Amino acid sequence: MTQGRGRRTGAWCAGLLLAGVSVVVGCRAADTDGITPVPQLLAFLPWLLVPAGFALLCALLARWWAGLVWAVVVLGLLAWYREPYGGTGEPDGPPLAALRVLTSNVEFGRATPALIRVVRDRRPDVVFVQECDPGCRTALEREVADTYPYRRAVEADGSKGSIVLSRFPLTPAPGVTGTMGMPGAVADVRGHAVRLQLAHPMPPLPGQVGLWRRELGRLRAFAAAGPRTPTILAGDFNASQDHAAFRHILDTGMSDAARLTGHDRTPSWPSRTASVIGAQIDHVLLSPDFTVTDAHILRLPGTDHRALLTDLTLHGRT
User: Fold this and answer.
1) 296 pairs with which residues across the strands?
2) Is the pLDDT of residue 259 over 70?
3) Rounded to two decimals, what is the model's pTM?
């Protein structure tokens, strides 16, 4: 009797775990982000291997053979979806210019001093800064104004402020509309026009998943609207490659710089636990005009996001 009860308990545990994981994996397979809590769990899709593996063990100990097959299928799908998403095509045209791009969410401006040190040390050509409040903007303009004379900013408090700093001349361009500031510009990169757009859509909080999806959709529309002009779309997307709304941006022909350098699963948030568990939600997306020679994910004290530094080469079109 005790052995039978133990098997039933094991089967129930396996079934409950597999049911929950299967909902998330099913949404991934159906190319949809679903409803809360699916979008939040999709950000951590690779780590669902843990409950799925435990469910496999429970099914095995309970001798629940149907559950064992179920667990194997779920684990196989999770392993499949760990593979990076998006193209890796190389441009055919000759190299025109090299540039270094940095994106950083400074968490309400708290990591501004650390960002300034990184900017001075690594000397990026273009810097995308999210959650740059008035104090952050003032500090950046005071400390690095000589190096970055060109700026486009959305001046706002807290998480809504943002700024793009550039060594290259900038022409104002309409930014993408969002709850948080997302400025845009066109940079003159040694005589070549490059569209720049900062990304910072709302996170998929419970009750705000629809807004998150709409703002990512606007970023997708921006990416698709300029196929003839080299484009850099960078920032805190609050989405990973396991979110359908983010993959739809990549489907416009954009490539993820981290993916091109083998860092497609390196977490950028939350920085305090990223070495153990986290999600890559900070990205530098590029049109097919660019190659990536290097990428580094940097920890900045004071923020829950890691920064992303990329070395790019702009190519001409044949």
Assistant:
1) 309
2) yes
3) 0.95
